[in-house]
Amino acid sequence: MENKFKPQLDHYIKEIRKGTIQYSSPSNIALVKYWGKHSVQLPCNPNISFTLSNCKTTTQLSFEQADTFSFKVLVDGKHNQDFEPKIELFFQRIREYLPFIDRYRFQINTSNTFPHSSGIASSASGMSALALCLCRMEQILDPTISDESQLRKASFIARIGSGSASRSVYGGIVAWGQTDCLPESSDHFSTPIEEYHPVFNNFQDTILLVDKGKKEVSSTVGHKLMNGHPYAESRFSHAHENIQATMNVLQTGDLKEFIKIVENEAFTLHAMMMTSNPGYMLFKPKTVEIIQRVQDLRKESNLNLCVTLDAGANVHLLYPHDEKTQVMEIIEKELVVFCENGQYICDEVGRGPKRLNEDYA
Q: What's the Rg (C-alpha) of the chain?
């Protein structure tokens, strides 16, 4: 599988001296979570997500031919060394798949529309945007690469930087990880779900910002704690069952069953954290209050409103577009009090990344 992504330097047709490529790429919210990985960023269980629209990273990749490879990271236009060790490792790992990078020096200028490292999958949007820039650069060097092939390779490359980033390369509903219920699926790259019930079009995700600060335990550390976890194998088996159930729901549009699966997955993810060794908790007291309040409100209103969480304290409220007015009223009356500075983000299922501009010579 990996060999198909390994071109030789003489494979490239054109030469470019310098230029810039810019992409915006969204975050995503997993419905069926992956927690635990092996080898180089391969998932221990298949997973599936909604690609979002408004929570996104914009990355401009500037490049110029040079005798030796180098790079510099800017965040919101300012040099930021905090991310450079992760980017250095990323470049080391992708060198064999994008061998042209050794001939260039790069400047990566990136910015987010949402808080970084707070449990809204900023690595997914950030690494997918960078991977798309690099794979577009390769496509310029070799114009025979099709757009479909460029996207698949970008998903493969993004995965090497951040597992969930492989899903953000595509819009809509996206699966990652080999599963029998999706024949074209792979552990090495993600696969978009092309057909699903129309109720999931423009599905809403309002993110309640309980805590905008950096989470206390990184996802990288959390994944490693699944090694030797007493409930790991049971969890992986359970995820396979939930993938099958989710695929069925995506076809039928059964929102009651959708809610059961999504909330079960969110709570199972955090149960794995709490029962690891050492155990830890990313929930905050207000996270729990929101969950309890939403479940009570759902019974009272009969709305198709459910909660999910990534590896953080912030709560994602998922619901169909035709219930948006009612849900927003509930948020303002009942839930905004639990948000840091009363802040939340309104998002929805989106169409995926966009190439904003490019210029090269």
A: 20
Torsion angle of the four alpha carbons 156, 161, 166, 169, in this order, in degrees rounded to the nearest 10: -90
Contact predicate 124/168, CB 8 Å: yes
C-alpha dist (Å) from residue 301 to 33, 294, 304, 323, 327:
28, 10, 9, 11, 10
Residue-by-residue DSSP string for 172-235:
SEEEES-BTTBTT--SSSEEEE----GGGTT-EEEEE-S--SPPSS-HHHHHHTTTT-TTHHHH
CA 24 to centroid of chain Cα atoms: 13
End-to-end CA distance of the chain: 33
Average pLDDT over every residue of 69-79 = 95
Give the pLDDT confidence of 186-211 residue by residue, as tens digits.
Answer: 999 999 999 999 999 999 999 999 98
Q: What is the CATH number of the domain that holds 55?
A: 3.30.230.10
Inter-axis angle of helices 84-94 and 147-161, nearest 10: 130
Length of the chain: 361
Q: Report the distance separating Cα 331 and Cα 343, nearest Å.
A: 11
Distance CA 129, CA 59 (A): 6
Q: Cβ neighbours of residue 256 under 8 Å, at least 6 residues apart?
A: 304
Q: How many domains does the chain have?
A: 1
Q: Are strands 344-348 and 204-208 parallel, antiparallel or unpaired?
A: antiparallel
What are phi and psi for residue 159, nearest 5 degrees? -55, -35
Residue 230 Cα to chain centre, angstroms = 27
d(CA 63, CA 120): 29
The CA-CA-CA angle for residues 226, 83, 140, to 5°, reads 105
> DSSP character for 15?
-
Mean local confidence (pLDDT), 64-90: 94
Please give the helix or strand (H or E) that residue 21 lies within, else none: strand 18-32
pLDDT 10s digits, 103-152: 999 999 999 988 765 556 689 999 999 999 999 999 999 999 999 999 99
Parent domain of 285: 1-361
3-state secondary structure of 253: coil
